[in-house]
Amino acid sequence: MQLTTKRLILRPWQESDAEDLYNYAKDPDIGPIAGWPPHKSVEESRSIIRGVFSGKECYAVCLKENGKAIGSIALKLNGETDMTEQDDECELGYWLGKEFWGQGLILEAARELLRHGFEDLEMRTIWCGYYDGNAKSKRVQEKLGFAYHHTCNEVEVPLMGEIRIGHTNVMTRERWFSLDGNCPCKKRSCERHGKCDECRAHHEKSKRPRPCER
Question: In this structure, which topology does domain 3-206 adopt according to CATH?
Answer without folding.
Answer: Aminopeptidase (3.40.630)
